[in-house]
Amino acid sequence: MGTIAVLGAGKIGEALLSGLISGGRSPEDLLFTERHPERAAELEARYGITGVTVREAAQRADLLVVAVKPQDIDPVLADLAPVLRPQSLVVSLCAGLPTSLFERKLPSGTPVVRVMPNTPMLVGEAMSAVSAGKYAGPEHVKAVTELLSCVGKVVEVPESQQDAVTALSGSGPAYFFYLVEAMIDAGILLGLPRAVAERLIVQSAVGAAKMLDEGESHPVLLREAVTSPGGTTINAIRELEKHGVRAALIAAIEAARDRSAELGRAHED
């Protein structure tokens, strides 16, 4: 992949840089951009990676990962367009932004791969979905898949599914955190100390996730295995269904999908 530049060294950008180094990539082959000098100095000291401007990154890197917020994309593309080297691979980690936006703003023929990662990248357990743009071929998708494999798992999807991916796995960790928060509050309501309730729920979440990841059983079967006739769990499930938790979760994910699509439409010419 040659030299890799991460444009925007926020939490996700830093997590990717850290994962690349942990995966054996030399700091000399990595670059990053960061608009805050103090933050740039901190990252240089921590990882030994050189901080550069967007234009310098475009001139030096073979693969550029754009990891800025969607509302900040226009000045980044304006800086990239005049100096981007032919056939440099551009990888977008910007939620909601289609590859067509990059292809329209950057030199004709620029290969672009769209990615939706999520915050478990911070602990090397990301779920990333990749989609090829108009000018990106299988070799580009393969390069991006290898790049992201150092920080988690990767799946390829058509770009038409990226808004759904954003809603489901991009925002997904927040739904789990929200549920864990509510369960901890329930434990406190039932008389448990906060620290005990938190430990009980977090470890239960870790164990349940491991069973889902390593086992071959469908989530319904795993849930049924805990749900004894006339027991405590079935009474809890009844209350969840009575309060429409399943329907509310589906509606929430649909709303996230719609917002992702809205972000993309905001950048249409």
Low-confidence stretches: none
Structural classification? alpha/beta
Order of helices and strands: EHEHEHEHEHEEHEHHHHHH
Tally of alpha and pi helices? 12
Keywords: Amino-acid biosynthesis, Cytoplasm, NADP, Oxidoreductase, Proline biosynthesis
Family: Belongs to the pyrroline-5-carboxylate reductase family.
Subcellular location: Cytoplasm
Function: Catalyzes the reduction of 1-pyrroline-5-carboxylate (PCA) to L-proline.
Verbal overview:
This protein is 54% helix and 13% strand. The protein is an alpha/beta fold and 269 residues long. The chain has two domains: 4-159, 3-Layer(aba) Sandwich (Rossmann fold); 172-262, ProC C-terminal domain-like (ProC C-terminal domain-like fold). It has an eight-stranded mixed beta sheet, with helices on both faces. Strand 7 (126-132), helix 6 (138-148) and strand 8 (152-156) form a beta-alpha-beta unit. Helix 7 (162-170) packs across helix 12 and helix 8 (172-189) packs across helix 9 (194-214). The protein is elongated. The two termini are 32 Å apart. The model has no long low-confidence stretch (mean pLDDT 94).
Please give the structural blueprint.
Layout: E1 4-7, H1 11-22, E2 30-33, H2 37-47, E3 50-51, H3 54-60, E4 63-66, H4 73-80, E5 89-92, H5 99-105, E6 112-116, E7 126-132, H6 138-148, E8 152-156, H7 162-170, H8 172-189, H9 194-214, H10 219-226, H11 232-242, H12 245-265
Parallel strand pairs: 1-2, 1-4, 2-3, 4-5, 5-6, 7-8
Antiparallel strand pairs: 6-7
Binding site for NADP(+): 67-70
Domain Pyrroline-5-carboxylate reductase dimerisation: 159-263
EC number: 1.5.1.2
